[in-house]
Amino acid sequence: MRSQRPRKLNQMLGAASWSSLALAGALSAFAAWQAGSHGRFSSASLVPVPEAAERAAESLAPAAEAPLAAPAPIEVRIYTEGQLRRGETLAGALDRQDVSAQLVHDVATALRPVFDFRYARAGDRYRLAQDERGQLVEFDYRRSEWEGYTLRRDGETLVAERVQPDLHVEHARVAGVIATSLYDAVDALGESGELAHDFAEIFAWDVDFSRSVRPGDEFHILYERRYVKSAQGEPRYVGAGRILAARYSRVMGEEYSAVYFEHAAGRGGYYRADGSAVERQFLQAPLTYRRISSNFSTARVHPITGRRRPHLGIDYAAATGTSVWAVANGRVTFRGWLGGLGKTVKIRHDNGYESWYGHLSRFPNLRVGQQVRQKQVIGYVGSTGLSTGPHLHFTLQKNGRLVNPSTVRAAVAAPIPPQKMKQFAEARDGLLQALDPNALRVVTNEAL
Question: In what helix (H) or strand (E) does residue 8 lie, and over which residues does it extend?
Fold first, then answer.
């Protein structure tokens, strides 16, 4: 009987699968370990398990969990966005939203190769992104649906670029006779006030459009009309682009002409027919004003003291809060209270000039030693100090001596380089011919 039982057992084991045998061995080992761990003995014996079965048993064991990957760092973005109000600068707008003056300076400096914030206007929109440390990440500035500018951080560098959609540009001409104002005349021809503003900017050194316009004055504008494709694929007019040529003829006989010319890639400006620059060192006026309430005089009766004394400056009457511009590039030498002038700013310019701006209501982000550019806002009209009402008191010094601002004709910007004059002459002749130099008989608004 004993000899038959081992044979029968071998037959049974031979019929079992290796995986069953491996499982039995694993259970036996587990039972022995369990008994030993409780201080008891077991009658179960360990059954040798072939290596292949051992490997099969190991494959049934749960795999060790892989260590969790470190979570990706969360990028924090703090956004500040808004729109420029009338007479407001970007610095003033961001100051309202508690953005530091240094960050505003970094934005303006980095964007200067593609956009000059002297030409910012009401309605322009902006969006600033900072990280959790307050460092600038990106800045978007949108002037219209076809003109925008971006600033992106690339490592330690800020990269500026102009962004615009795929535009179709046509040349057009508007011309008319002024009855009330330049803005009304351009608007009557179906164009926006933006075109009138750009035209006035070109001749800002020659004509004071806030008070010098007369009924009967004529204007001619050759400019770009810009189109984008609509969702249906049709061209849609989105606004006036660059002015290519302009002429302003006054009833009193003066005539001013200018053409746009790029003397280097991306570097252009407006020039007279002889190649001299339209831009001068000083603007005709440091603000848009209602009237001149007091001219430069060596003997004026003061409205408060009643005493006759020199008034060696010009008083411009304007509403409280009207933006005041730097009349030229320069450096701020004073910002604060100055006796009867109240809140005052002084700016030193090239060639020994210094300009003063008195009776201001408040200052933008401005500090002594700061460099400012022509037509940058440096204050706002007020009535601080010895004053009877809101106005700007403006004075100009030359080497420490007060001079009449209305008679100063300071140096102009650089003319067309001699090596570019032939190229300029060809461009000038074509633009002035398209502008139509003939006397204007009827108002016109036509595509060319």
Answer: helix 4-15
